[in-house]
Design goal:
Blueprint lengths: L1 H22 L1 H7 L20 H15 L2 E6 L2 E6 L2 H8 L15 H4 L8 H12 L4 H24 L6 E2 H15 L8 H7 L2 H17 L6 H4 L3 H31 L4 H6 L8 H10 L5 H31 L2 H15 L8 H5 L2 H13 L5 E5 L4 E3 L2 E3 L4 E5 H4 L19 H5 L19 H18 E5 L8 E2 L5 E2 L5 E6 L2
Parallel strand pairs: 2-7
Antiparallel strand pairs: 1-2, 3-11, 4-7, 5-6, 8-11, 9-10
C-alpha cells in the first residue's frame, strides 16, 4: 500500500513538473512558434519513435508544413529548427551560441572531449593546437600520399573493371581510411593494422545508429536507464572495436618516433618526407611538454579518424554515383582534365588540383545535395530574440543542412545536379550561410581544404582512366536519420570502362 502511494505521488509530481515546464513563461514562448501538434504531456516524443528511414521522411515534411522556424517539444526537451540563412548566421557566427548538448554528449564515450564535442577554453586550446596540422604547406606534402593511395584504388578498380555493378562503397571506404592513416596519423595500413581496421568502419556505423536511437527515445537520455538497454550493449561492443583500432594507431606511431629519434614536429617538417608531417606527431610532441595528455591524444585521434575518414567516404561515394548519372557533366570534367594534363599520366600536383575549377563546382554541388553531416545542433545558455521570436535559454537549436541546401528559393530546381550554381558569379549572389556543408563560423570544419584536395585527387584520377556509367540512381537511395547522411542501401553500384 505504501509503495503504491509513493508511486502515485511520484507520477503526479512528474506530471505537474511537465505541465509547469510546458505552460510557464518559457513554455508559452515556445508555443508561439509553428510546429507539429503535441500529444498531452509527452509532446512530440511519439513522432520520433518511427523507424529511422521513415523518421527521415517525416522530418523532411516539417519545413514544407511549418516554414523556416519550427518548434518540437519532447517531454522536457524543447528544440527549435532554423532554415533561414540569416538566422543560421546569427547562431553559427558567434561563440555565444557555440555550446553543444544532445547528441554530442552521447558521443563522449566514443570521442571524449575532442574538437567536435569540447566547449569553452578546452575547445579554444585544441582548435589553436590542431590548426597547425592543416597548414597549406603541410597539405601540399600530403598530395603525394593522396596520389599513392589513389593508385591503390585504381589498381583495385582495374582488377574488377569487367564486373558489372561494381560496388564502390567498400572501395572508397578503405581508400579514405588508408589516406587518413597515412597522412594525419603517419601510419601505413600494414597487416597488424589491417586486422583491426576491418571492423572499424562497421563499428562507426553501429555507434552512430546507437546515438541516434538514444536521441530519439527520451527515456534513454537518462544514463542509468540507457545502461540497461540493448542499444547500450551494441554501442559498447562497437566502441571496443573503435578504440582498439585508434589505440593501435597511436601506439605504433609512438614506437616509430621513439625508435627513429624524431624529436620535434618542426624537424619532421623540414626533412621532406612525403606527407609524414602527421597530426598525431604534433599531439605526441605536445604531450612531452604537458600541453596534452594520453587521454587527450586518444580523443583527437578518435575524432579525426571519424571526421576525416567516414564523412569523406560518404561524400566521395555520392559524388562518384552522381557523376556516373550525369554524362554531360562527366564529359565536361574530362575535358577540363585533358586541358590541364595535356596527355601526360603524371599524378596531379597541388597546382594542377587548384586548376580543376569545374570539378570543384561538381564537388560543391554534390555536397549541397548530399552533405555528409546533415544536421548541426547547438544549445542555448541564454535567451535570444531571433526571427521575430524570443527563444528561451536551455533550448536545443537544430539546423538541417540537408533541408537548407534544398530550399527552392535559394537553389531553383533543388533536386537537380547543376554544378554551375557554384561558379563565382553565382556564389556572389547567394547568402554566405546558404551553403554550409562544412558548418560555418568559428566552429567550422578544420579539415575542409584537406577534404577538397583529397576528393579532387581521387575523382580526377578515376575519370582520367575510366568512363563511368550509372547503375544506382539518385532515386534508388533510401536515406535514414543518422549522425551522417546514410542510406539503407548497403551497396552503391557504378560501371567502369577503360578509356583506352
Amino acid at each position: 500500500m505504501f509503495v503504491s502511494l509513493v508511486t502515485v505521488c511520484l507520477f503526479v509530481g512528474f506530471v505537474l513538473i511537465l505541465l509547469y515546464d510546458q505552460y510557464n513563461r518559457e513554455g508559452r514562448l515556445i508555443r508561439q512558434i509553428p510546429g507539429p501538434k503535441r500529444w498531452p504531456i509527452v509532446g512530440n516524443t511519439i513522432n520520433f519513435l518511427l523507424p529511422l528511414d521513415k523518421l527521415f521522411l517525416y522530418l523532411r515534411k516539417l519545413p514544407r508544413e511549418f516554414g523556416d522556424i519550427i518548434q518540437i517539444h519532447a517531454i522536457n526537451e524543447r528544440t527549435i529548427g532554423f532554415l533561414d540563412p540569416d538566422n543560421i548566421e546569427t547562431i553559427l557566427s558567434s561563440l555565444r551560441f557555440s555550446d553543444k548538448n544532445i547528441p554530442y554528449n552521447f558521443m563522449r564515450p566514443w570521442l571524449g572531449e575532442g574538437l567536435l564535442t569540447s566547449q569553452g577554453r578546452k575547445w579554444h586550446q585544441r582548435r589553436k593546437l590542431l590548426t597547425q596540422a592543416f597548414h597549406f604547406n603541410i597539405l601540399k606534402k600530403y598530395s603525394i600520399t593522396f596520389a599513392e593511395q589513389t593508385d591503390k584504388l585504381l589498381y583495385d578498380v582495374q582488377e574488377r573493371v569487367n564486373e558489372k555493378k561494381l560496388d564502390i562503397v567498400p572501395l572508397i571506404t578503405s581508400t579514405t581510411l588508408r589516406i587518413m592513416c597515412a597522412t594525419a596519423m603517419g601510419t601505413s595500413m600494414h597487416e597488424s593494422i589491417e586486422s583491426v581496421a576491418s571492423k572499424y568502419s562497421r563499428a562507426i556505423e553501429e555507434v552512430g545508429k546507437a546515438i541516434i536511437e538514444r536521441m530519439c527515445r527520451i527515456w534513454l537520455h537518462v544514463d542509468y536507464i540507457y545502461k540497461w538497454s540493448n542499444i547500450f550493449k551494441a554501442q559498447e561492443a562497437a566502441l571496443k572495436d573503435l578504440h582498439t583500432f585508434t589505440t593501435s594507431i597511436i601506439n605504433e606511431r609512438r614506437t616509430y618516433l621513439q625508435e627513429n629519434g624524431i624529436e620535434t614536429f618542426e624537424d619532421e617538417e623540414s626533412n621532406g618526407k612525403k606527407g609524414r608531417l602527421a597530426m598525431l606527431d604534433l599531439l605526441l610532441e605536445k604531450e612531452k611538454v604537458g600541453d596534452i595528455d594520453v587521454d587527450g591524444i586518444r580523443e583527437e585521434v578518435d575524432t579525426f579518424m571519424f571526421e576525416g575518414h567516414d564523412t569523406t567516404a560518404q561524400a566521395l561515394t555520392f559524388l562518384i554515383m552522381t557523376i556516373a548519372n550525369e554524362p554531360r557533366v562527366q564529359e565536361k570534367i574530362y575535358e577540363e582534365l585533358r586541358n590541364i594534363f595535356k596527355g601526360n599520366q603524371n599524378t596531379p600536383t597541388t597546382e594542377e588540383l587548384n586548376e580543376m575549377k569545374y570539378l570543384e563546382c561538381c564537388i560543391k554541388e554534390s555536397l549541397r545535395l548530399y552533405p555528409s553531416v546533415p544536421i548541426i545542433l547547438r544549445y542555448l545558455t541564454e535567451e535570444i530574440t531571433i526571427g521575430g521570436y524570443i527563444i528561451p535559454r536551455n533550448t536545443h537549436i537544430h539546423i538541417s543542412i540537408y533541408d537548407l541546401h534544398r530550399r527552392a528559393d535559394l537553389y531553383p530546381e533543388p533536386e537537380r545536379f547543376i554544378p554551375e550554381r557554384f561558379l563565382p558569379e553565382a556564389c556572389a549572389k547567394r547568402h554566405p550561410y546558404a551553403y554550409i556543408p562544412f558548418s560555418a563560423g568559428p566552429r567550422n570544419c578544420i579539415g575542409q581544404k584537406f577534404v577538397m584536395l583529397e576528393m579532387k585527387t581521387l575523382v580526377s584520377s578515376l575519370l582520367r582512366k575510366y568512363r563511368l556509367e550509372a547503375v544506382t540512381k539518385p532515386s534508388d537511395l533510401k536515406f535514414r536519420t543518422d549522425i551522417l547522411l546514410r542510406t539503407n542501401n548497403e551497396s552503391i553500384y557504378v560501371n567502369f570502362f577503360n578509356r583506352c
